[in-house]
Design brief:
Strand content: 35-45%
Order of helices and strands: EEEEEEHHEEEEHHHEEE
Shape: globular
CATH topology: Penicillin V Acylase, Chain A
InterPro entries: TANGO2 (IPR008551)
Structural class: alpha+beta
Protein name: NRDE family protein
Pfam families: TANGO2 (PF05742)
CATH architecture: 4-Layer Sandwich
Strand order of the largest sheet: 3-4-5-6-7-8-9
CATH superfamily: Penicillin V Acylase, Chain A
Number of strands: 13
Oligomer: single chain
Largest sheet: 7 strands, antiparallel
CATH class: Alpha Beta
Number of domains: 1
Length: 275
């Protein structure tokens, strides 16, 4: 993923616990499967990168979640680095036991072996959500309640598209905490380019920096390949709490690996989290 905005309400007892809207940006030549229940990991719902084998965002029937963005530092990319998508799938396929912060501390022990990334890891039934960036001096940390965003820099770095889409999510949820997931997807399909004086300097050309400043990126060989909206509802209190998940992915690939731009192939899933 290259832009994630989310609202985290860990004290929720009757409504949204977690709401997310996210764009996955990738080279168009890189094949991937859209969101589905994995045959070799039946409890895992995620898309799948067919080059590296991992994923960019996923969740499980027992209430775990993870999402990844790359950290933009083209001069520091390691060609021999392992795939970052495995950091998501490893959390979601391991035996349940470790808390999100414990897992991120494990990852941080070998963080330097990867190219730059942000990793968001959660366990909804534990009501825990944590973040780590291997290009930040900050140690893995739990996330505070509120509305946050991650793009290709550290958490809540005020790039224009992050600021705009984070505010759009907050405004949408203030009007309707149960806004349709399609509305959350639509707010991420924003092709506006930032002004030159607002652009970060990340080591790419000015032309590329402009194109990447849009929330929804359209370039000849690179762009936003899909958008995911996700809501987790918590009903009840204590051990009797019921958690339910609703998610929709709008993708440029219906599973045939034929790219159609802009992506309009939609898949939706709903399930209750198993205790």
């Amino acid at each position: 993923m290259c832009l994630i905005v989310f609202d985290w309400r860990p004290a929720a007892t009757g409504g949204p616990l977690f709401t997310l809207a996210a764009n996955r940006d990738e080279f168009l030549r890189r094949t991937a499967e859209p969101m589905h229940w994995w045959q070799d990991a039946p409890a895992l719902l995620a898309g799948r990168d067919l080059t590296g084998g991992g994923t960019w965002l996923g969740m499980t029937r027992d209430g775990r979640f993870a999402a990844l963005t790359n950290y933009r530092a083209p001069n520091a990319t390691r060609p021999d680095a392992p795939t970052r998508g495995a950091l998501v799938s490893n959390w979601l396929t391991r035996e349940r036991g470790a808390a999100p912060l414990e897992y991120l501390n494990e990852v941080a022990q070998n963080g330097d072996m990867y190219s730059g990334f942000n990793l968001l890891v959660g366990d909804w039934t534990r009501r825990e959500l944590a973040w780590y960036c291997n290009r930040s001096p900050r140690a893995p940390a739990p996330l505070a309640e509120g509305t946050h965003g991650i793009s290709n820099a550290v958490l809540d770095t005020p790039w224009p598209k992050l600021v705009n889409q984070r505010a759009a999510l907050a405004d949408t949820l203030a009007r309707n905490p149960l806004a349709p997931l399609d509305d959350l997807i639509d707010l991420m399909r924003d092709t506006r380019i930032a002004r030159d004086d607002e652009l970060p300097a990340t080591g790419v050309t000015l032309e590329f920096e402009r194109a990447l400043s849009a929330a929804f990126i359209e370039m000849p060989d690179y762009g936003t390949r899909g958008t995911t909206a996700l809501r987790v509802l918590a009903q009840g209190h204590g051990k009797s709490t019921r958690y339910s998940v609703q998610t929709t992915e709008r993708s440029d690939d219906n599973g045939s690996h034929i790219i159609k731009r802009p992506g309009n192939s939609e898949r939706s899933f709903a399930f209750d989290i198993e205790a």
